[in-house]
């Protein structure tokens, strides 16, 4: 009995037309959505990567939806991408998945086993945490350096060429990820409450946040906060904080300055543990910056401030804003590994 | 048709024996439990209040369980207390409820209407927030001064003799109640994570907290935190933090010092708004201290540190550790109002 879902792959019995050109699949699996792309296997990579097909599915984090549903999501989105690119599994040379929730070797081995059931044995398979795909999206597929992700949550990952890795932050709001979008917005809400009850100074955040939420008094914030505990809903207030900081509000400025310290500290912690800056700390390494919090604003550019702060300790830190999405990073990583595998340097 | 639950009061048709001595009911209704006590109506109050009966029920916060269930809980626990004290409703002279969730005049009016349906019209009825009962437990029934409650959550309430009131904090962990038991413990967990990933210094909190939770690595704290988001479960770690601070751990000491600042700031904010210290700030007023966080420890006494900090700004602040529980505070408040009502000074 086939261990894969035969009906998903029925399209392969049709004549897809044309010669079976070799392809690579790259996938970025997150808690919100999963993106899969298919690129041709070229001898050398052009500046602009040609995308044969792209598909999007829902969550593929096994911690969130369970193993069976995660496996089904991954298989479906890969089959859809191959169908769109008019390719069969026999044309695939390598598959690289960066999946949220893959934290331990046993998670990696489980997902590798799913892929082994789906693809022919000649296909090279690579499975990593989604932070690796984010890193690779900024390093053209190389796993070396550091990635800082700051969206609703925040996490910093570092990787060395000899396979060591380290992470910092990423523990969620209860455990103090104060540089995350959630952390920034929660502190802004706290500033509004403190101004209201007399514990803190008045701040522009009060009017700006109440207006954006359609509330008339800070008292109503308590109810608003508890009707829906979703972190993303609170993190969505970050633009209001940036806007108040740009207008000169001191509370908003202090919140962003503290966030900059937190985010750069999380990068510096992994750089130190992995000696990414070399013995003297001056060596060069990329820091890939991903996520809404790090995006440039008019006056207040959190990403640039974080970079400046990291470079004070590690002058060789090279900030990189990826030009491609993480799924393409995963495909580039597979392409690199495939090339290296000809000299037996990558693990399957 | 009677608007009260007739079957609850069937015991009143029996001969309860003895003369029908006048009594007062005091009730402290919280989110976890509700306590009702019955005291005799004495001409003057002795140092030790005689308790005729005491009953305990579950939650009576209408925000948590709905209005019908809250009303039923209150009626049942009052009936049980009267039955235990061998008293009928006709013997009751006054009822005072301090109920969590009573924040607006309309909440107060709703609960008053429930009581009006249950008790004969001669009974004096008083309904307040549960913080008022906590205050009254330290002021022998007088509503003047400040109460600081620091358990799982934290809140500060202030009251003037002419009926003005103010509150600070009490907005929950998202909105920054960092002096609460939850806030102290969450910061301690953050300290453990930061020491583990290289963002912060090593701390005794790591071994102490992992041991108390039966975990083997700080990595496991992330899963532990998210399996059960209950605030009380996290706040239960406060004794570990105090113990590490007493042993000289700097991270634990900083967390407690910051909590002291937060808690005293919440008191000072309401004192300032209500001018409880008078025009020069040197006037005398009670600060009733309630909740596990404020209880004395060996070397580290959070309650004493908070008092010292408040007195630096308001030298007339008089800390009071209540000798009786809040339900008795409610009964004493009713007793005081009943006495004043003879000169028409209390509202029904």
Automatic annotation (TrEMBL), chains A, B:
Sorted alphabetically, which keywords does the UniProt record give? Kinase, Transferase
**UniProt-listed InterPro entries:** ATPase_BadF, ATPase_NBD, Euk-type_GlcNAc_Kinase
* Name of protein: N-acetyl-D-glucosamine kinase
One GO MF term attached to the UniProt entry: N-acetylglucosamine kinase activity
SUPFAM superfamilies per record: Actin-like ATPase domain (SSF53067)
PANTHER family from the UniProt entry: N-ACETYL-D-GLUCOSAMINE KINASE (PTHR43190:SF3)
Residues in ATPase BadF/BadG/BcrA/BcrD type domain copies? 25-334
The record's top EC class is: transferase
Q: What Enzyme Commission number(s) apply to this enzyme?
A: 2.7.1.59
Tell me the classification of the organism that encodes this protein.
Eukaryota, Viridiplantae, Streptophyta, Embryophyta, Tracheophyta
Could you say which protein family the record assigns here?
Answer: Belongs to the eukaryotic-type N-acetylglucosamine kinase family.
Keyword Kinase included in the entry's annotation: yes
Q: What Gene3D superfamilies does the record tag this protein with? A: 3.30.420.40
């Amino acid at each position: 009995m086939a261990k894969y879902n035969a009906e998903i792959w029925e399209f392969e019995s049709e004549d897809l037309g044309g010669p079976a050109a070799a392809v690579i699949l790259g996938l970025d699996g997150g808690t919100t959505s999963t993106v899969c792309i298919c690129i041709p296997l070229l001898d050398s990579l052009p500046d602009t990567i040609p995308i044969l097909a792209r598909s999007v599915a829902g969550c593929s984090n096994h911690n969130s939806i369970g193993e069976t549903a995660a496996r089904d999501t991954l298989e479906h989105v890969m089959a859809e991408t191959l169908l769109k690119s008019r390719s069969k599994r026999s044309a695939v040379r390598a598959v690289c998945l960066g999946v949220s929730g893959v934290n331990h070797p046993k998670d990696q081995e489980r997902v590798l086993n799913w892929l082994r059931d789906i693809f022919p044995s000649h296909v090279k398979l690579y499975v990593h945490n989604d932070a690796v795909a984010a890193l690779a999206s900024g390093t053209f597929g190389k796993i070396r350096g550091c990635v800082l992700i700051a969206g609703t949550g925040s996490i910093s990952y570092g990787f060395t060429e000899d396979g060591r890795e380290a992470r910092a932050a990423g523990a969620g709001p209860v455990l103090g990820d104060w540089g995350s979008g959630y952390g920034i917005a929660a502190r802004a809400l706290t500033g509004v409450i403190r101004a209201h009850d007399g514990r803190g100074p008045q701040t522009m955040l009060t009017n700006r946040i109440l207006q954006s939420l359609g509330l008339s008094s800070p008292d109503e914030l308590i109810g608003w906060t508890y009707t829906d505990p979703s972190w993303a809903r609170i993190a969505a207030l970050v633009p209001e904080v940036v806007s108040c900081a740009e207008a000169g509000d001191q509370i908003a400025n202090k919140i962003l300055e503290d966030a900059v310290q937190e985010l750069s500290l999380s990068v510096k912690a992994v750089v130190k543990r992995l000696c990414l800056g070399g013995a003297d700390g001056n060596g060069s390494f990329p820091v890939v910056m991903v996520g809404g919090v790090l995006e440039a604003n008019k006056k207040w550019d959190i990403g640039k401030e974080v970079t400046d702060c990291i470079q004070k300790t590690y002058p060789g830190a090279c900030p990189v804003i990826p030009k491609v999405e993480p799924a393409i990073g995963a495909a580039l990583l597979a392409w690199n590994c495939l090339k290296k595998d000809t000299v037996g340097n990558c693990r399957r």
